[in-house]
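=== RUN LOG ===
request id: a7f3
mode: sequence -> structure
chains: 1
length: 90
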Amino acid sequence: MSIEVNLDLVLVKRKMSLTELAQKVGITIANLSVLKQGHARAIRFSTLDGICEALDCQPGDILSYRKNANSGDLGKPKRNNDPRLPPASL
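=== RESULT ===
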């Protein structure tokens, strides 16, 4: 994934635990942990807003973009290799 989550770094800088952040934002520690580990597939703006407010930071302090080899594939149609389906027309 080319979006990196730097929540752990911001937490250390703010000397705040994940538990304390979860309480301030009103979400579970489990959901924050998924985000912190970079396994989240999405984040609601309201959650991002709450995290930024609690940590007194900007979204760019928590999230960053890194171009990788797979990022050029975004938006390109995937080739269908399933023999049960008709070939896709381009």
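=== NOTES ===
The chain has a mean pLDDT of 85.
Residues 45-55 form the longest helix (11 residues).
=== END ===
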